[in-house]
Amino acid sequence: METEDRRILIIDDEPSICAGCRMTLADNGYVSDACSTGRSGLKALLSGRYQLVLLDMKLPDMDGMDILQKVKDSGIDLCVIVMTGYASVKNAVDAMKLGTFDYLSKPFSDDELLNAVALAVENRRFKEAHMAVRRQPATRRDFGNIIGENPRILQIFDDIRKVAPTDTTVLLCGESGTGKELFARELYAHSHRSDRPFMAVDCSTFSSSLLESELFGHTKGAFTGAVQDKEGIFSAAGNGTLFLDEVANLNMDIQAKLLRALETHEFKPVGASRLKKADVRFIAATNRDLKTMVREGRFREDLFYRLNVFPIIIPPLRERRDDIPRLLYHFLRQTCRQTGKRVDGFSDESLEILVNDDWPGNVRQLKNVVARLVIIADSPVLECQHLSDHWEAGPEPVRDEVPDSLDALKAAKQNLLDVQFGEIEKAFLKKALSEAGGNITRAARRVGMQRSNFSTLMKKHGLNSAAGPSSDRI
What we know:
Elements: E1 7-11, H1 15-27, E2 31-35, H2 38-46, E3 52-56, H3 64-74, E4 79-84, H4 89-97, E5 100-105, H5 110-135, H6 151-163, E6 170-173, H7 180-189, E7 198-202, H8 208-216, E8 217-218, E9 230-231, H9 233-236, E10 241-245, H10 252-264, E11 266-267, E12 276-277, E13 281-286, H11 290-295, H12 301-307, E14 310-313, H13 324-339, E15 345-346, H14 348-356, H15 362-376, E16 381-382, H16 384-390, H17 406-435, H18 440-447, H19 451-460
C-alpha cells in the first residue's frame, strides 16, 4: 500500500495516547499526524488529506459526535475508528449511524489498534475498487488485451469484474493456448492490488526440488549450491498477486506446502526454522481436469477445493468461432506493425477455411499461424494458396481420393496435418532454435510459446538443442 493510502489522523487530548498510537502505526508502515483539540482536528480532516481518522469522542472543545456530523455533511469520504473511555451501546449505535467503521474502548492493545486499522484500510480500498468497477461501462472496452464478443467471453468479463476487487482465489481452467495468463492479468489489473507486483510461475518448468526453492526461497547452506539466502517468489510478490500456471504439475509434497500457504498465508523457506508471512492474492490455472486427478489420487482434494473457490472456464477457440475473424484481423494488424509489411486482409475463401478449423492450439496457434502467413505473403490479400503452401492444407485431392464419410474426412484431414503441417512445424522449430543459438528457453520466448510446450514439440519431431550451435541453459 502506498504512503498516501496509509495517511491517518489521530484526534485525542491525551498526549500519551497520540504518542503511543503514532509509534505503533509507524512501526507498521503507516504515516500519521495528531491533533489535541477537536477544532484543529476537524480543520485537518476537512482538508481532505486523510483517509482514516482515530477519533476520541470526549474532547475539551468539541464532542466527537459533532465532528462526525460535520465531516459527513462535508461529503468527504473518510473511514472513522472511534476511541473512547466511555463505551456504551448508545454511543456505538449513534457513531455507526454517522458512518463509523469500528469502535475501540480505552485502554486498547497495540494488536487491537493494528487489527482495526488494517480492516478499515482494506475496507476502504475494497469500496474504492468496487465503485470503480460500477462506474465502468457495460462493455468489454476495459478488457483491451483480450479480443472477444462471444457470449461466453463476455460472461467471463462480468465474472472478472465481480471477483477481481476481492482477494478470492480464482482457478482458471482451459486448454493450452486459450490465454489463461491474459485472463489472470486482467484479474490483477481490475483488483485493488494492481499497484503491487504480479508474479507468474509456470509450475511445469521447474523440477520439484527447484520449484520449492523458487516459490518459498531458501537459506544459505540449505542444499548444495545454496551459497546465500534467496528470496522466494512468495516474498517477492510483496502483497501483490501470484499466478500459478499449470498447477496440476505440482507433486504431492509441494501441494501440501502450497495448501498451508493458501490457508494461513505462511510459508517456510527451504532450510529455514521459522515461518514467514505473505499477504498474496492467488490465481491458479490448469489445462487438466483436477477433479479426475483428485479421484485418481494425483491431486490433493483439500487443495483442489481451496483453489476452486471461484472457477472460471475459458472456452476453446472452436467453441467461440464467431470470435475467430476478430482475432485474425487483430493479429494481422499486430504482425504488420511488427514486420512493417502491408497485408490488408483475407479472401472470403481463406477466411472460411480458418474459421472452420478446429484450432487444437487455440488462440496461441492462431496467432502464430497469422504471423507466418504475413511473413510469407506476397500480395495484399491472403488467399487459399497461402494456406495450402504454408499452413495445413495439402494439394487438392484427385477425384477418387475424395472422402465418402465423415470418419474418412477426419482421417484425411489428420493425415494432411501430420504430413504437411508436420514438416512446417519441424522447420519452424529448427529456425527458432537456430536463431536462438540452440537455447531452448530463448527460442520458446522468441516465438511466443511456453518452454514446456516448445520442448514437447521438439520431442515429437526428434529434435534436440543441437539444432542450434549451443546447448540449452536455464
